[in-house]
Amino acid sequence: MTDPADPAGPTDAADAGLGRVRWKRFAAIAAPAAVGAGALVFMTAQGAIASSFAVSGSSFKVSADSLTGTGFVQYGDVDASKDGTKHPVQVSGIKNATITNMCQSVKVGPFTLRLTAGDKGTPVQASDLVLDVEQLNADAEFSNIEIGRDASTLDKGPNGAKGAAGMFGQQADSLKLTGVKQVAWATTAGTFKLSGLSMKLGKECF
Prior knowledge:
Elements: H1 10-17, E1 20-27, H2 37-46, E2 60-80, E3 86-100, E4 102-108, E5 111-117, E6 124-143, E7 146-150, E8 168-188, E9 191-193, E10 198-201
Antiparallel strand pairs: 1-6, 2-3, 2-4, 2-8, 3-6, 4-5, 5-10, 6-8, 6-9, 7-8
């Protein structure tokens, strides 16, 4: 997926000293081996399934100008379709999130269903947001990040958002993503307020 060790410039290094980390080129926030074949077998044997429901046979795309949030955690896991197909994902949990100019699209046969919100001056608001992500590209900034923490001990995100013992995890007090483009298998939230919601057939978000 990505290498989180992307070199940072002088400003980034200074920020890191203050508990802030920026990665200019950001594809899937981190690349722990949790999404590798060996870890997939391990997590399946342990019964670790990310989403609480069977996901559909199609992933979907989401884009946004920005996503800011507090209480961030991330770890590797597996989503499962009803037919038993397993989908390795990075689970990103955010206690409170604000999203501007959000677009979500999914292929339905020969058509594309497109949903937009938060593009008319009032952003989308979400609490206890959990994203099961296959691929993510964005510019990212974290505050007080902990990288390499045991996924079972994560405690800054939504309740219950933690991975299997011994697996790679990371968490931060806050995050800011800009230029977001992601492919996901599932999204859940305690509350999801979609301002200016529009849903119609159209083009994919990217």
